[in-house]
C-alpha cells in the first residue's frame, strides 16, 4: 500500500467495513460504488481493514479471478469480505422491491440473474441487490446491498441501453441508470427462474422449493447452522414461491411487473 492510500468506511450487510486503497482507485470507488458506499462512517469504528492494491485486489492474497478493471476487482473483494463477516444470513440472489414487498431471484453466477434483475429495475421494480439477499435471522428483515451491476454487451442490447456506451466485455452500471433504489423490508416472494427457449411461463411452486433454493444458495449458513435453517424455514412458511421459465429477461420482467402490480 502506497503512502497516498485513502480510507473509505461504510456499513455493509450489518458490519462496519473500512477499505484502504490507492488514492486514484479510492476516488473511482467513491464515484462508481456511490450507492453501495453512500453512508460513510468513521473508519475507527470498523473492526478490520480491506487493503487493496492498484489492481483492486487484496494485497498479498491470491485472487480467484482478476478483471482488467480495478473497480470490478475491488467490488468483488468488498462483497466477499462483507458476506463472510456479516451477522445476516446472506444468500446468493437478486432482490427487487414491488409495491407489496420484496422479491428474490436465487441463482448462481453466469445464468443471467444480473441481467434479469436489471430488466426488473428497468420495468419499475426498486433495486436492492443483484448479488446478496441479506436476511436478519430473527426478524427476517432484508437489508439493502446496492452494488452496481456488471453487464456485458449482450445485456446492454437486451436492456436497450445506449449502444454507444456498450462495453467490449463488461461494465459496471449504476442502479440509477436503470431505475430507482428500493428500501429494505420483508421478503414476500421467491421466483425460481430457468432459461429456456420459448414463451414466458409463470406458475406457483411448492414452498419447500423456495426453502431448498434459499439454503442451497446461502453464502454463510455455516456461521450459525441452526438459526440459518430456522430462518429459511420461516421464510418458506411466509413467502410465495413461483417457477418462471423464460428466454428473454425483458419478457419475464414485463410479466412479473404485471403480476406484482409494478408500474
Oligomer: single chain
What is the mean pLDDT? 91
Radius of gyration based on Cα positions: 18 Å
User: Outline, from the CA principal axes?
Assistant: globular
From the N-terminal CA to the C-terminal CA, the straight-line distance is 47 Å
Tally of discrete structural domains: 2
Summed up, the helix count is 7
- SSE string, helices as H and strands as E: EEHEHEEHEEEEHEEEEHHEH
Written account of the structure:
With 263 residues, this protein is α/β, with parallel strands linked by helices. It folds into 2 domains: 5-85, no CATH class; 89-259, Rossmann fold (3-Layer(aba) Sandwich), CATH 3.40.50. The chain has 7 helices and 14 strands. It has a 5-stranded mixed β-barrel with strand order 4-5-12-8-7. Strands 1-2-3 form a 3-stranded mixed beta sheet. A hairpin with a 5-residue loop joins β7 and β8. The longest helix is centred in the N-terminal third of the chain and has 16 residues, at 70-85. It is globular. It starts with a strand and ends with a helix. The relative contact order is 0.15. The mean pLDDT is 91.
Question: Could you provide a short overview of the structure?
Answer:
With 263 residues, the chain is an alpha/beta fold. The protein has helices at 23-32, 70-85, 113-122, 153-158, 207-216, 225-238, 249-259; strands at residues 5-12, 15-22, 49-51, 89-98, 101-106, 126-129, 132-135, 141-143, 149-152, 170-173, 180-181, 185-195, 201-204, 240-246.
